[in-house]
């Protein structure tokens, strides 16, 4: 156990604590210093699209020696945004996102008076409208060539498939806010609209984008874009590419209406026999040349552009230009294949031609049938029975004709046959004698 505290010491400690408590105000402020009265009648109103305006009445009973200023700050969902501001004005106007709860508070302060304390905070909050999770998300905008802007977004996780988001835009100097008309549908929602802000100092106003639905159930959302950070040049256009000796000369046209000193280019050269050469940076100029190129090689060139940070804060590269090719490609593999293919083609064509000609000859000059075979088919075995007869000589057309044997015949008539006595008698047969 600890040592016992003497009674006198306890009494002294109690008196000290009482004096310290009496020297401070109930709210913890030092005693003897005047607390300023707070501003009154704080309320808010909506301005153009995403602008929220807070107004208040001045604090009463402020001495003339007080350098009165109003300190205000904005909290999003109860979290301070490091945006504390001091002003003599009786209002504050800021661009805010409408899909979150916005708290605003303000108090009175005497900046040059050490005898007074700031007033208590006066607070007000703005609740979001619509159901949670229905606001558009992933809003992304790009300003092309200082001429038109394309914004894309995704539907909220709790939004129905029939939700029709509508985009509105506004910037200082436009007058009334405008509604986008050219919508893009697909995996992402989007819309593009003309946006040409004339200026001579490259200082552009903030562009306010509001995306909402006509239904009260869909929560609106605001996005504020600094156009200098989202500008993107169009692709350059190659106007000439030529090869002089062992050098490639390239020339292109700058995109948009940007000043020449605000553009930086990258030129990429790729050949058909090796990997791409690392892109070359070209500043301000719209031409480039590549030395020591290989003969008998086809080269492909393309160009893209980016804005210099001295003119714009954007880091967007343009799309690559249309590719242009130059050079001739000598591929010996083609000639080798050609040399091997020609003889093979000729041989195949010759075989096909011979077969075709043989069939054609048969059609033009049909084979004459053998007469002997025809006769054999007609008479069958009869020809075989008469092989020894004259028919053989007839059939064998190749045998020489046999010499006919000529015999002399002598007619012998009996003289007695002519006498009357013998008229009724039969005549004797004639006798033929061969000579």
Automatic annotation (TrEMBL):
<dbReference type="Pfam" id="PF21605">
    <property type="entry name" value="CRLF2-like_D2"/>
</dbReference>
<comment type="similarity">
    <text>Belongs to the type I cytokine receptor family. Type 5 subfamily.</text>
</comment>
<keyword id="KW-0812">Transmembrane</keyword>
<dbReference type="InterPro" id="IPR015321">
    <property type="entry name" value="TypeI_recpt_CBD"/>
</dbReference>
<dbReference type="Pfam" id="PF09240">
    <property type="entry name" value="IL6Ra-bind"/>
</dbReference>
<feature type="region of interest" description="Disordered">
    <location>
        <begin position="416"/>
        <end position="435"/>
    </location>
</feature>
<keyword id="KW-0325">Glycoprotein</keyword>
<protein>
    <submittedName>
        <fullName>Interleukin 13 receptor subunit alpha 1</fullName>
    </submittedName>
</protein>
<dbReference type="InterPro" id="IPR036116">
    <property type="entry name" value="FN3_sf"/>
</dbReference>
<keyword id="KW-0675">Receptor</keyword>
<dbReference type="InterPro" id="IPR040566">
    <property type="entry name" value="Il13Ra_Ig"/>
</dbReference>
<dbReference type="Pfam" id="PF18001">
    <property type="entry name" value="Il13Ra_Ig"/>
</dbReference>
<dbReference type="GO" id="GO:0009897">
    <property type="term" value="C:external side of plasma membrane"/>
</dbReference>
<keyword id="KW-0732">Signal</keyword>
<keyword id="KW-0472">Membrane</keyword>
<dbReference type="GO" id="GO:0004896">
    <property type="term" value="F:cytokine receptor activity"/>
</dbReference>
<dbReference type="InterPro" id="IPR003961">
    <property type="entry name" value="FN3_dom"/>
</dbReference>
<dbReference type="InterPro" id="IPR048648">
    <property type="entry name" value="CRLF2-like_D2"/>
</dbReference>
<feature type="transmembrane region" description="Helical">
    <location>
        <begin position="332"/>
        <end position="357"/>
    </location>
</feature>
<keyword id="KW-1133">Transmembrane helix</keyword>
<dbReference type="InterPro" id="IPR013783">
    <property type="entry name" value="Ig-like_fold"/>
</dbReference>
<feature type="domain" description="Fibronectin type-III">
    <location>
        <begin position="232"/>
        <end position="329"/>
    </location>
</feature>
<feature type="signal peptide">
    <location>
        <begin position="1"/>
        <end position="23"/>
    </location>
</feature>
């Amino acid at each position: 156990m600890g040592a016992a505290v003497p009674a006198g010491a306890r009494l002294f400690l109690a008196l000290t604590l009482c004096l310290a408590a009496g020297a401070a105000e109930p709210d913890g402020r030092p005693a003897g210093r005047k607390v300023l009265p707070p501003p009154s009648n704080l309320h808010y109103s909506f301005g153009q699209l995403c602008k929220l305006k807070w107004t208040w009445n001045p604090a009463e009973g402020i001495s003339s020696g007080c350098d009165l200023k109003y300190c205000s700050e904005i909290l999003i969902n109860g979290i301070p945004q490091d945006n504390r501001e001091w002003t003599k004005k009786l209002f504050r106007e800021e661009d805010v996102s409408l899909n979150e709860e916005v708290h605003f508070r303000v108090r009175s302060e005497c900046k040059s008076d050490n005898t007074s304390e700031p007033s208590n905070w006066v607070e007000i909050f703005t609740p979001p409208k619509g159901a949670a999770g229905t606001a558009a998300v992933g809003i992304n905008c790009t300003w092309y060539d200082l001429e038109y802007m394309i914004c894309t977004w995704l539907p909220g996780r709790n939004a129905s498939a029939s939700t029709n988001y509508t985009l509105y835009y506004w910037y200082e100097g436009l007058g009334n806010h405008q509604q986008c008309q050219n919508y893009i549908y697909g995996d992402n929602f989007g819309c593009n609209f003309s946006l040409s802000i004339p200026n001579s100092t490259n200082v552009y106003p903030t562009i306010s984008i509001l995306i909402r639905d006509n239904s009260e159930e869909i929560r609106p959302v605001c996005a504020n874009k600094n156009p200098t950070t989202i500008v993107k040049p169009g692709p350059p256009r190659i106007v000439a590419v030529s090869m002089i000796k062992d050098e490639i000369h390239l020339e292109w046209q700058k995109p948009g209406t940007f000043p020449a000193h605000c553009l930086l280019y990258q030129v990429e050269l790729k050949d058909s026999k090796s990997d791409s050469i690392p892109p070359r940076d070209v500043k301000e100029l719209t031409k480039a040349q590549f030395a020591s190129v290989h003969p008998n090689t086809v080269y492909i060139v393309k160009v893209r552009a980016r804005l210099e940070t001295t003119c714009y804060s954007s880091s967007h590269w343009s799309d690559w230009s249309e590719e242009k090719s130059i050079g001739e490609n000598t591929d010996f593999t083609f000639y080798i294949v050609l040399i091997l293919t020609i003889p093979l083609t000729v041989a195949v064509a010759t075989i096909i031609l011979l077969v075709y000609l043989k069939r054609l000859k048969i059609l033009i000059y049909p084979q004459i049938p053998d007469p002997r075979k025809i006769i054999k088919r007609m008479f069958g075995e009869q020809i075989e029975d008469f092989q020894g007869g004259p028919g053989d000589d007839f059939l064998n057309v190749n045998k020489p004709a046999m010499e006919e044997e000529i015999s002399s015949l002598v007619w012998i008539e009996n003289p007695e046959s002519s006498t009357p006595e013998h008229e009724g008698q039969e005549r004797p047969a004639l006798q033929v004698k061969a000579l």
